[in-house]
Structures are given as C-alpha cells and as structure tokens.
Amino acid sequence: MSQANIKQDINSIGWQFDNSYIHLPESFYVQISPVSVRAPQVAILNFALAESLGLDVASLSEETAALLFAGNNLPDAAHPIAQAYAGHQFGNFTMLGDGRAILLGEHLTPTGERFDIQLKGSGQTPFSRQGDGRAALAPMLREYIISEAMHALKIPTTRSLAVVTTGESVTRETMLPGAILARVAASHVRVGTFEYAAKTGDVSAIKTLADYMIQRHYPALKQADNPYLELLNSVMERQASLVAKWLLVGFIHGVMNTDNMTISGETIDYGPCAFMDDYDPNTVFSSIDYHGRYCYHNQSHAAQWNLARFAETLLPLLHPTQERAITLAEKTINLFPDLFQDYWLMGMRNKLGLFTKETEDINLAKMLLTWMQKNHADYTNSFRALAAEDFPEGDLFRNKEFIEWHTRWQARLSRQENSKQSSFSLMQANNPALIPRNHQVEKALTAASEQGDYAPMQQLLMALSNPFDDITEHNNYRTPPSPQEGIYQTYCGT
Ligand code: AMP
Ligand code: MG
User: Fold this and answer.
1) Where do runs of H (alpha helix) occur along 377-488?
2) What's this model's pTM, rounded to 2 decimal places?
3) Residue 287 lies in a domain
4) Does a structural domain hold residue 197?
5) In this predicted model, what pLDDT tens digit does every residue of 134-145 receive, in sequence order?
6) Residues whose beta carbon lies within 6 Å of some atom of ligand 1
7) Which of 30, 171, 494 to mutate to test the pocket of ligand 1 (most atoms within 8 A of CB)?
8) Domain C-terminal end among 400, 428, 456
9) In which domain, by residue range, is 60 found?
10) What would the pLDDT profile of 266-279 be if each residue is shown by its tens digit?
C-alpha cells in the first residue's frame, strides 16, 4: 500500500483529537515524535475498547494497524509530546518524565469523553536518562491483561488498546522481543507532575496545572471557596476509594511511587503488580521492593504518604500564609485513614452480603481475614464460596474457628430484613470468581512472547472479561497455583 493510502486509512477511523495539554506552559512537555520501528506487527488489538472510543480500528488492515500503534504513521491531528514529571521513587525525589512514552493527544469519544492516547515503549525522549526508551513484549502484554482485568472488575484504570511487536530486540538481562503498548487514560497527570511544577519554584506553574486538572477532572470545584483545598480533598477521596478497591480484590500495585499515582484516580503503570492467592497482608511481588514498602497492607499508608507530597505542592495555593496553608493541608491529609477505612468497610459489607451497618461489622470482616491468613486460605475463592446457601465445601472450612465465624455471620445476616438470596446476589456481584492469577498470567505470557502462541492469552482475556459470573468453562482459571507454580516475584517492571 502506498504511504498516502496508509495515511488516509489511519486518518479515517474516527479520530477526534482535541489536544489541551499542549496549551500548558512549554516547561510541561517536549514536542517529540515516536521513533519508528523496523517491522511492526500486531500482537493484540482491543476492538471492543476501540469501538467504545468511536475508533473503527477493525477497518484497518493488520499492517496499517501495526504502523499506527507502533507510532510509525500517526494520525494528522495527533500532536505528539513527552510529558515532564518528577516523583518520589521508594521515598526519594527524582526528576523523571516520559522516558519511553509519547502522548499522541486527547481523543474525544462520540459521547464527549476525553481520553489520552499514549504509546509506551516508543523510543527515547529527552527524559530517557540511561534508558533505551523501549519496552519488552511480555511486560506490555502483562499491562494489557491486568489493566483489562481491572476494568472488568470495575476498578478505575488506564486501559489497553493495542500491543504491537517492533521487530527489534531490547536488551535487558537477556535479549527480548520489543513491543509498544497503546494506552488509554482519563489523563496521565500524576502526583509527580505537580511535584515537577513545584520544583520549578514558579507558583504560577502549579496554579496553571491545578486549574487545568480542576477543569479536566473536577469541574464542579471551580465554584468552591477554596478550589485547591477541594482539589486535594477530591483527589484524596478518589485515591481512598481506589486503593480500598484494590485491597478488596487482593491487588498489589507493587510500585506506588508518586509518579505512578494519577490525579484522575485511575490505576496506572502496571509493573511488578499481581493479585494475591493465599491471604497474607505482607505479600510483596516486586523484586525491587526489598523492605515491603508497597506490600498489600501498606498500600493505604503509601497512598496517604503520596497524597502528603501532593498537598505540599499545593501549599502556596491553599492559603497566603504558609503556616495556615500547612495546617489546612495537614488537617485534610489526616482524614485519609478514616476515609480509606470507610470505603474499605463499605466494600467488605458488600463482600459479606450486608445491607445494613452494625459497629461490629469491621470485626466480623477482620476475624474472617485472620482465619484466612492462619489457614492459608485463598482470598478470592474463600469469599466466593460464602456466596451460596450451603455451607462452603472443602476440608479448609471444616475448622472450628471458621464454623464459629460462620455462625456469627449467619446471625448477622438474620438481623437484616433483606432475604438471604439478595445477600448472595450482592456477594456475587462483589466477590469475583476470577482474577488474573499470576501463574496463569505468566503461562499465557510465556506462550505469547516465547512461542508466538497468543491463544492462551486470548482465552485468559476472554475469561477475565466476565469475572463475576460462574462459567463452567472458566473453572480452570479459579484454581490457585500449586506450590511449584506459586510465583512470588515479578520482574516485569521494565
Ligand atoms: P516506571 O518504573 O515505568 O514507572 O518508570 C519510571 C521512570 O523511568 C519514568 O520516567 C520512565 O519513563 C522511565 N523509564 C522506564 N523504563 C525506561 C526505558 N526503558 N527507557 C527510558 N526511560 C525509562
Ligand atoms: Mg511510571
């Protein structure tokens, strides 16, 4: 096909670019295009997501789709940039920025929703530092699987539109096939973007960014007496809700650095993340998280710590006198633990089929978790097993402590007017049957990236798109790993 035809095809799939980020001061980004790759090929396309965005990706030939999502041929209305940001990584401040990603622009869906379209693994930028600007295939497919699974689990997240292989190798510990992920996000502005603005020492830069984020994600706050304090409150609210949702499905992000926390409240940057099998609050997956800073149960503390860094950047906007600004920020951030617990408890009540509130509910939930931890019970399967009329099957549950807990829970259910059936329906809608279990994900990734066999990944994705239903054919995905299959670390961060 001629270059002109390729361009015409790419332009005609329904792009509605309306790029607003480029109107921020120039210090916020660098204009730069993706570095073309040698031989792009489609690994996977998300037709359903494309359709919901109003993009007719299905009309493109595979070759053209590969050229598009590799960044070799861009739509005319794209305005490619690399975003500047900073961040606290494991507690240490660093200047960062898109070292291997290019934002093509903001696309408006047919219903007027605005989404960033970004290519990750698209070559070096001025922010690449020592990095090659590239990504390996398995980690990009991993982000695809986990982000799409999170979406199906009703957890706010960036999404994955496509993965293409580049026909080039990347050098990590070994040579690996290179790939690019097309990522869709409400926006890519992070706590670290505010830290970057604050680091410039220019208060007007912080104000511009804050106003931009209010306009884009929290427009109702424009009318508030103190919009910036309300911005802090609102971001905190969304993060408390988000991290509670993570815990409720057993998700561990793995790298909760401030550059990996969005202002929109979406989960972002799936590196060494994973879902827990056996319940253990100390679970860590990341091989670089030596001290368990981001382990399962520390995630709410990490979120609060990150939000405190966010609050610091907003101080000059919160109040003209610094002392008063600090008091306001501290007061707000100190509300986080209760806010988080409220969201978590609300989710736990749903998981336990409770429609009403009793003060003892929190202990009822915690007793169950303590029992799970002591008995190495599978977190997902144990909750799912409760959502039925009959006493759960299996030796695990023929245990004095569990039987006592079950009696107490049954008594609690009886104290509400709702039928048992309605409790079970509530539980089935809140206790997934399926999560992306690490041993299954790794198997699918090995088949795809080492044998070029995408069938296991396609089957896994299909199953994960429907996590709350009991579907017999998907039962194999519900089995926890055998001791040999248990994978405790993921090295997929880069
Ligand atoms: P991450 O660990 O993916 O959140 O990335 C942290 C920072 O490292 C970001 O600024 C990335 O753009 C940058 N980075 C990660 N991998 C690479 C790479 N291969 N080449 C250049 N920059 C990278
Ligand atoms: Mg990151």
Assistant:
1) 379-386, 400-414, 420-430, 438-451, 455-464
2) 0.97
3) no
4) no
5) 999 999 999 999
6) 96-100, 127-128, 131-134, 259-260, 269, 271, 493-494
7) 494
8) 428
9) 3-185
10) 999 999 999 999 99
